[in-house]
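User: Please predict the structure of the protein below. I'd like the answer in structure-token form so I can feed it into my own downstream comparison script.

Assistant: Understood. Taking the following sequence of 268 residues as input:
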Amino acid sequence: MPRRKPVRQPVRRRGRLRTAPQRPSTVDAGEVANFAGMARAWWNPDGEFRPLHRLNSVRLTFLRDQLARHFGRDPAAMRPFADLSLLDIGCGGGIVAEPLTRLGFKVTAIDADATAIGIACAHAAESGLRIDYRQAAAEDLARRRLRFDAVLALEVVEHSADPALFLATAAALVKPGGAFALSTINRTARSFLLAIVGAEYLLRWIPRGTHRWSKFLRPSEVAEKLRENRLEIETVMGLAYAPGLSAWRLGGPPDVNYLLFASKPTGK
């Protein structure tokens, strides 16, 4: 009768089962679940994402003008960015990816929320647009050594599990000679009053708990981390809400919402 081979027992170290080390991740599962619960409303301008829809035209104006200046393109042209690639990190339902595709960019757009990606794909198909949507994190693309002419991180770094890792990873995804743009919320007393107390509790523009003030980043903190990763800061611009007009405008101090534009020198 053949002898049975001894069964190997899991190796234990200091009384604990040894497991493979976990790779660091920028994805906060709690944040993903929170947005997944609202994902069906991505293209409803009067739904949970109403503030982003109101903010979108101002963000797109900033992006168009800064990217046109950086790449030497005519912002008034029909498709000024026709031969350039762009990555939209944390794309949600595609409200930024679609207009930038229309401006000529070859867009790759990623989000950790599968529901949002499904909605984005369906909406792009209805609109006749070709966008490379993927359920992925920024580090997934960085591990594959993918690089893009432009990388965007709009209203996403404040929802990441590791902001420092997120910014380093986003910077790594920018080609030499390329550009990076970010929009987020400053960590100030004013932002606590307006972005959390006002927007979430008093005006109820967004669901309570959407933001955590402790996760907001000051422009100096973002700039420091980007410089460590070979990006040069070119512009930091405040975003202000005009209640009388129910609209956003560019300019003013970056003490609540702000936009940042940076570039990676050629050869880096």
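That's the full token string. The radius of gyration is 21 Å.
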